[in-house]
Write a structure and sequence with these properties.
The chain has a four-stranded mixed β-sheet with strand order 1-5-7-8, with helices on both faces. The chain is about 50% helix and about 15% strand. It starts with a strand and ends in a 12-residue tail after the last helix. It contains ten helices and twelve strands. The chain is α/β, with parallel strands linked by helices. The protein has helices spanning about 50-60, 85-95, 95-120, 125-145, 150-170, 190-210, 230-235, 240-250, 275-290, 305-320, and strands spanning about 1-5, 10-15, 20-25, 30-35, 35-40, 45-50, 60-65, 70-75, 260-265, 270, 290, 300-305. A hairpin with a 2-residue loop joins strand 2 and strand 3. Helix 3 packs parallel to helix 5 (about 150-170), helix 6 (about 190-210) packs across helix 7 (about 230-235) and helix 8 crosses helix 9 (about 275-290). The protein is globular, with a radius of gyration of 20 Å.
Length: about 325
């Protein structure tokens, strides 16, 4: 399946003879068979015809809108996959011990994966870094005996602070940062993390809908207005696995530099330039198409994108059987 990223002002997106056609000026265009298209991401003031929108809605192709700096605005989505019976069960289980068990599984997987990412990008096994990994493991071990989700998230928050402290010691000096910052991202490193998390969240959102689940009825994170809690739950095990490791790879491989970011002295945020955004989106798409063998219930390689889909299938099974122990998060090795 194909994902279309539109990042050129003045682009014109149309539907013609079973193709989605993107025109860039008079002489440049790109055609994608509509049956191969899974989502469209628009990062500019591109125009999209009503004919194309209707075809996307009929076929369940989500259209997402971002600012040129990567801020998420919203999406057009089909309602073809709504499964009200599954959603009723999903909502009912969110008030039971199912949530606690699922939270333990997913957050333990997240912390384990963060620890592995730290190990992979450590240039040396210094004592300080090993101490950080030990502290993260201690947080992970304590989660097993938690009786409340709030306790789990407390240990998760502690592990996250330690993890980002570790990453800050490993990142190239050009991208030095002082911990996680969000709205706005206060450095180039956090800018890439925020954009990657936003795109990943949006993709998981669409896949949850395709399975008949409600993205706003979550199990782990607290409900808040306009926040797709279930998508946020399901993203936890993938944050370090996909986005963090990708950003570290881009920096270590000299694929991106601070010159690919803009910063207004009157605004504390850092944002990718158009060139930087193109580099980032191409890297993200290559990452999502990378085959992996980290899922313990299949014996063949699946891309990150396929693996997310398989994990959501596992969540559906756990919900249908009302047994959270059936859900196993991705576990890096």
């Amino acid at each position: 399946m194909s994902y279309l990223f539109v990042n050129a002002n003045g682009a014109y997106v149309n539907y013609d003879a079973n193709y989605v056609v993107v025109k860039y000026g008079e002489d440049s265009s790109k055609k994608i068979p509509v049956e191969n298209l899974e989502a469209i991401y628009i990062f500019t003031s591109a125009q999209i015809t009503s004919q194309c929108v209707v075809q996307c809605l009929k076929r369940g192709i989500n259209i997402s809108y971002y600012s040129k700096s990567g801020a998420y605005f919203g999406r057009l989505q089909s309602t073809n996959h709504v499964n009200v019976f599954r959603q009723r069960k999903q909502a009912a289980l969110s008030e039971t011990e199912f949530s606690l068990e699922l939270a333990k599984n997913i957050i333990c997987g997240k912390i384990h994966n963060q620890t592995i990412v730290l190990k992979r990008y450590a240039r040396s096994e210094g004592k300080e870094l090993r101490d950080l990994q030990v502290k993260m493991q201690q947080s992970l071990n304590k989660i097993i005996n938690c009786k409340k989700i709030s306790e789990i998230m407390g240990y998760e928050g502690n592990a996250a602070r330690i993890y980002f402290e570790g990453l800050s010691r490993l990142v190239h000096q050009e991208f030095a940062f002082q911990g996680r910052s969000r709205r706005p991202p206060r450095d180039e490193f956090n800018s890439m993390l925020s954009l990657g998390y936003s795109i990943l969240m949006n993709e998981i959102y669409g896949r949850l809908e395709n399975k008949g689940l409600h993205p706003y009825f979550g199990f782990i994170h607290s409900d808040r207005e306009k926040h797709p809690t279930l998508a946020s739950d399901m993203m936890e095990e993938w944050r370090a696995t996909i986005v963090d490791s990708m950003v570290m790879s881009m920096i270590n491989g000299n694929e991106i530099h601070t010159e690919h970011f803009s910063h207004d002295d009157g605004n504390p945020g850092y944002y990718l330039t158009r060139e930087g955004l193109n580099i980032f989106l191409k890297k993200f798409e290559r990452k999502m198409q990378t085959p992996i063998k980290y899922l313990d219930y299949i014996d063949y390689p699946a891309t990150f994108r396929q693996s997310i889909d398989l994990q959501i299938n596992e969540l559906v099974k756990a919900i249908e059987k009302e047994d959270a122990s059936l859900y196993h998060p991705i576990w890096l090795r």
